[in-house]
Amino acid sequence: MKKKKKKYLNIMIIPNSNQQIKSFKISIPLIKTVAIVAFSIIMAATASLVYFGKTTTYLYTVIAEKDKKIEQLTSVKEEQDKKIATLDRNAQLVSERIKGLNELEEKVRRMVGLSTPATSRGSVSRDSRSDTNISYDNETTAELISQIDQKTQSLQDLISKVAARLDYLNSIPSAYPVYGTITSPFGMRKSPFGYGTEFHPGIDISVPVGTPVKAAGKGVVTYAGWLTGYGNAVIIDHGYGIESVYGHNSEILVKVGQSVKRGDIIAKSGNTGRSTGPHVHFEVRVNGNPVDPMKYLAKGN
Fold first, then answer.
1. What CATH number does domain 181-295 carry, 3.30.450.20, 2.60.370.10, 2.70.70.10, 2.40.128.270?
2. 269: which residues sit within 8 A by CB, 6+ positions away?
3. Higher pLDDT, 166 or 12
């Protein structure tokens, strides 16, 4: 069998100088093999570049989406932080208003002599709230604050009324100036001087000379001196159109313009003026007119 002859490619290098011409012989199959390998490498590199290009594009897309998602979440977090801050401020506002209510309630209780109960409403704080349904959004907070402000105003009005009432109660002549036997009541009576009847504008309380005479209520001394028929007398203005008169004293211990409280000693009892014996003449006037002191004095003598 005849052997197949190999084919070659002759390459000649002819220099410009007088150097010797060089000749190379390369096998044609080798050239084909090299060409196939080179083509395969180029194709593989191209495929790799295409693959990595697509992968890179996909990764950039994924990263971009992740960045967008992170930006959105960051925005949501910032918004939530703002809402939480608003809720905290609203809760603080409500807590401060309720604290103010508690202080007003305590003030009213002190004014009327009531003790604070062991279980009081207390103030609201974020840590102590147990009702998870409470919402402190702006609308709810505004409504709560409005209700609390109305209650606060109501309590302040109540405090004003209680203060006025307490001042009135402290001012009216409701305490006996001295304790003794009432020898002559208010109204028409037989004259103690032995002839006819007369109007007695107060009550007479029999006590020994020198007995301390006390103010029947809070007020200001408007008269302290000798008064015809009353002897040494003291007149106290209690406000509200009410005055009290203390007559027949042996000694006066206050001055005009002096403020006194219920129970302050203002004089010492005696037998001065139009009197038949040691006693205190106690009189109450309303708008200048004498009224029965027993309507003001505490029950019991």
1. 2.70.70.10
2. 178, 207, 208, 209, 210, 211, 212, 213, 248, 249, 250, 278, 279, 280
3. 166
